[in-house]
């Protein structure tokens, strides 16, 4: 567990890019460490996105290699979902015990080992082996995801400014790179097993090296007020927190459905090539990345509620356009709107859950659990529906979740921040 800050006062670092701001000389060592940690978190988010997209962008190739349809792919994705959801409640405890850097390493190594198993399963046309690999892959990605978000939260706290949307933009940017790598390798005929093995080598090296720049873990302060903090489970009884969770659930399902099914829906619904499917997925991720990077200005100008409703409405329009488009280009416009709309719901939900620092841990835990459950479990269900109705038609079910996010968006409204406790006069 980390202490909240390194001193009685947090350094203020103005500017859009905090690592470029000048700092007093006596803060040089701490600032250098913080700058390195900031860049490391950006890199580890990007790497996580690239690893995830290396699988997601080539789901059609996996389906072809195993000779399965949408329902079969849905079963495989369910294994990945179970692994991720099962690891989420344990990830925080693991990070507290071994530190966020080691938790990221452990998650990355698990995911890399799992990718090797998946590659073997695809090469040997073994559905059980592939499913087992996806189970471990989901667990590794889930642990890695929670640990890097914890590190990102700590860096953001030390900077005393919001950077979490940019971290998520780094994830989306990494996913875009992974998708484009998948498209290129697909176009030149590189098999998915060989693709995964190459990604494994990159992942293992980087996941071991990058966390060296993370902030050092420090023991949690042993103060009497810690015992007075409410239980994290109390947040499950809070109506506002649960409604924020519903908002995030809709946003997460919107993103997760696109991650897992845009490529295959393009191939199946528009009779396009696997390469076109991978490119379409890349277009979605690119739209999300740009919106996450620049979206803070929109939130500041409109407020969370109006920004949420605008984004989710764009996502709904884009989803319907993608599903009904008769041509690849029109579907591409739909995917762009879908990506723009899906970009900010999750980060805004996290911000809303953390409005009160004293209660943030429990509330963020609730919202994250609901969001990630939808993100990982929803897409496999869509796969089963896709077998019955066609994959593009099944994606329309996501529209119901988007409507819920729009309806309950007021739950995420900004709340007046509680004043900080008075500082120690001796500080």
Explain this structure to me?
75% of the residues lie in helices and 0% in strands. The chain is globular. Mean pLDDT is 81; it is low at 1-26, 220-228 and 417-427. The chain is mainly α. It has helices at residues 28-56, 59-66, 70-98, 100-123, 127-159, 164-187, 192-209, 224-228, 239-269, 274-302, 304-324, 328-342, 345-353, 360-389, 391-394, 398-407. It has 16 helices and no strands. Helix 1 packs antiparallel against helix 7 (192-209), helix 6 (164-187) packs antiparallel against helix 10 (274-302) and helix 10 (274-302) packs antiparallel against helix 11. It folds into 2 domains: 38-219, MFS general substrate transporter like domains (Growth Hormone, Chain: A, Up-down Bundle); 235-415, MFS general substrate transporter like domains (Growth Hormone, Chain: A), CATH 1.20.1250.20. Pfam families: MFS_1. It is a multi-pass membrane protein. This is MFS transporter. InterPro entries: MFS (IPR011701), MFS_dom (IPR020846), MFS_trans_sf (IPR036259), MFS_Transporter (IPR051788). It is found in: Cell membrane.
> Strand-residue fraction?
under 5%
- Strand tally, please? 0
Q: Distance between the terminal alpha carbons, to the nearest Å? A: 24 Å
- Corresponding CATH architecture of the largest domain: Up-down Bundle
Shape: globular
Write the CATH homologous superfamily of the largest domain. Answer: MFS general substrate transporter like domains
Rg over C-alpha atoms, rounded to the nearest angstrom: 21 Å
């Amino acid at each position: 567990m980390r202490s909240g800050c390194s001193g009685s006062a947090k350094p203020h670092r103005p500017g859009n890019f905090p690592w470029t701001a000048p700092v007093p000389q006596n803060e040089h060592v701490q600032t250098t460490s913080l700058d390195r940690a900031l860049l490391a978190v950006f890199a580890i988010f990007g790497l996580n996105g690239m690893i995830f997209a290396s699988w997601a962008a080539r789901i059609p190739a996996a389906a072809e290699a195993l000779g399965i349809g949408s329902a079969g792919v849905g079963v495989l994705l369910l294994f990945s979902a179970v692994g991720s959801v099962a690891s989420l409640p344990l990830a925080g405890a693991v990070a507290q015990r071994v530190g966020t850097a080691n938790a990221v390493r452990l998650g990355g190594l698990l995911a890399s080992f799992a990718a090797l198993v998946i590659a073997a399963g695809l090469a040997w046309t073994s559905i059980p082996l592939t499913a087992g690999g996806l189970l471990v892959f989901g667990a590794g990605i889930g642990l890695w995801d929670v640990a890097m978000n914890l590190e990102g939260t700590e860096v953001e706290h030390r900077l005393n400014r919001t950077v979490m949307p940019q971290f998520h933009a780094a994830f989306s940017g990494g996913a875009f790179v992974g998708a484009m790598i998948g498209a290129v390798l697909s176009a030149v005929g590189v098999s998915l097993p060989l693709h995964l093995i190459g990604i494994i080598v990159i992942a293992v090296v980087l996941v071991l090296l990058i966390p060296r720049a993370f902030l050092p873990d420090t023991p949690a302060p042993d103060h009497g007020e810690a015992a007075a903090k409410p239980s994290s489970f109390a947040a499950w009884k809070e109506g506002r927190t649960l409604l924020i969770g519903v908002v995030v659930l809709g946003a997460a399902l919107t993103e997760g459905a696109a991650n897992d099914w845009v490529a295959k829906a393009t191939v199946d619904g528009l009779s396009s090539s696997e390469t076109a499917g991978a490119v379409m997925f890349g277009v979605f991720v690119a739209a999300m990345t740009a919106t996450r990077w620049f979206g803070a200005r929109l939130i500041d100008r409109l407020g969370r509620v109006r920004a949420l409703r605008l984004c989710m409405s764009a996502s709904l329009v884009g989803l319907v356009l993608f599903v009904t488009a008769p041509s690849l280009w029109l579907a591409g416009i739909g995917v762009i709107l879908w990506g723009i709309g899906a970009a900010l719901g999750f980060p805004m939900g996290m911000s809303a859950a953390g409005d009160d620092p004293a209660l943030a841990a429990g509330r963020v835990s609730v919202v994250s659990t609901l969001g990630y459950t939808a993100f990982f479990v929803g897409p496999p269900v869509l796969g089963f529906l896709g077998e019955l109705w066609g994959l593009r038609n099944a994606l329309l079910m996501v529209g119901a979740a988007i409507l819920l996010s729009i309806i309950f968006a007021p739950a995420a409204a900004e709340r007046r921040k509680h004043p900080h406790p008075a500082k120690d006069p001796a500080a």
